[in-house]
Amino acid sequence: MSCNYAEGLSEYENKGILGIAENFDTEEVVHQKCKELANLIKESKHVVIHTGAGLSTSAGIPDFRGPNGVWTLEKKGEKPTFNTSFDDAKPTKSHMALRSLVEHGYIQYIISQNIDGLHLKSGLDRKHLAELHGNMFIDQCQKCRRQFVRSTAVETVGQKPSGIPCKSNSFGNSRSCRGGVLHDTVLDWEDDLPERDLEMAFMHSTLSDLNITLGTTLQIVPSGNLPLKNLKQGGKLVICNLQPTKHDKKATLVISSYIDEILTKVCKRLGIEIPEYSVEVDPTKKSNISEWTLPQENVKELDKQFKMYQKKK
């Protein structure tokens, strides 16, 4: 659960600005802004989504810096009153909407700071996702660097060894790994971000003509600065969050409403149906082992696009 994950982290003083009051646009304003956002998405060729803890609050997972966030309450000597486990949490309407928007070609990439595994559970393809802070449902071999899906949330934080041998030999004819041991992928405060995911996030954010942030105060760097990478080239930024952020003035559009409401309205405007969550597409519910390694061919393909973009600058 979110507060237990927080308790597993090392001591760290600078957790950002906590407990800022939330703002809510009126229903009429939200309706108009969602119409504008849908039009921006339709007009854009490369849309990138940046997701934070606010995306998962409707799944029962607390955020960190909101009025009732984990860090906010911790400062008061309190804990969140609700207690939802990562294992029991299901993808929200927003997670399912994002998957559908990706599959219909409206969104090209999603960059997430969340470690709750809900993008994974939604059935989103790995090639469309960068997980900058790790995933409670993913182990990685310290030797071959391949990643594998867990059926239950890991109980450690900080890329610690589980003692479980690499699972690459479970894939028949695929290359096997000798002597590798699985580690959790969840970052502690001072851990380096995963190199390939960060590279993909940086390149997509820069190439994007529209970066959209969902449920993040953009305080943690480098994640919080990635949505700005397209601005020098004339790209646009949209911020969807209940609390104000330090980058609001740089945004073309700021929407202060619940993310589920925003994406429901946007999908309706775009004529996109939001599917229900199903265990059939959830890799954590499968009996066989699923691999979650970022496909190398996707990294190479994007790197090629990025180099061509740099030559044109």
Radius of gyration: 19 Å
Global morphology: globular
**Beta-strand residue fraction:** 5-15%
**What are the secondary-structure elements, in order, as H or E?**
HHEHHEHEEEEEHEEEHH
Tags for this entry?
313 residues; alpha/beta; 6-stranded parallel sheet; 8 helices; globular
Care to describe what's here?
The chain is of the alpha/beta class and 313 residues long. The protein is 28% helix and 13% strand. The chain contains eight helices and ten strands. It has helices at 2-8, 27-43, 70-75, 93-103, 118-122, 195-207, 259-270, 296-312; strands spanning 47-51, 109-112, 129-131, 138-141, 147-149, 161-165, 181-184, 210-214, 236-240, 253-255. Strands 3-2-1-8-9-10 form a six-stranded parallel sheet, sandwiched between helices. The protein has a four-stranded antiparallel sheet with strand order 5-4-7-6, with no helix packed on it. β4 and β5 (147-149) form a beta hairpin. α2 crosses α7 (259-270), α4 packs parallel to α7 and α6 (195-207) crosses α8 (296-312). The relative contact order is 0.19.
